[in-house]
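COMPLEX REQUEST
Ligand: zinc ion
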Amino acid sequence: MSDLAEFLRARYTEQLEAQGRISRDAYQADAPCPVCQKPTWGMSVYVGDPSRLAKFEPCEHEINDPEQLDQFQEPAPDPDVLADLDAKLAIVDLHAGPHECSSYDAISREINACQWVPGGDCTTLRLLAKPFGEHRDYKVEEWAV
Ligand SMILES: [Zn+2]
Ligand SMILES: [Zn+2]
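STATUS: Structure written out below.
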């Protein structure tokens, strides 16, 4: 598998794992706040990269310990997001090794529909990688479209 395919696979796998930890409903059970032990009536969760932050109502205490957070949440992944990530992982598989693929001519932007790609760094995967351009492992020189 090419570096680019591995990079994309890692990003989508991270996103899938993050989906598995997300709750889309405010916490409504009668468990006490883990910080002050007072009764709560809700909890807002903010999902960021790499950690999540939960704020309890009404005491406004915040926690970001993943293990503590998981005690208060049911995983509720978004089926649309999961389907999107599954499709992208399948696309990565299809383009990971040597294959024939479509590419742009760098200058004319004409499409060459059957270019042989020996290593798997094709235009399709480069386009998929574009949204991750700020990631520390993104190779600007090699993968720019
Ligand atoms: Zn509290
Ligand atoms: Zn391809």
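REMARKS: DSSP finds five helices and five strands in the chain. Residues 95, 99, 101, 117, 122, 124 surround zinc ion (ligand 2) (CB under 6 Å).
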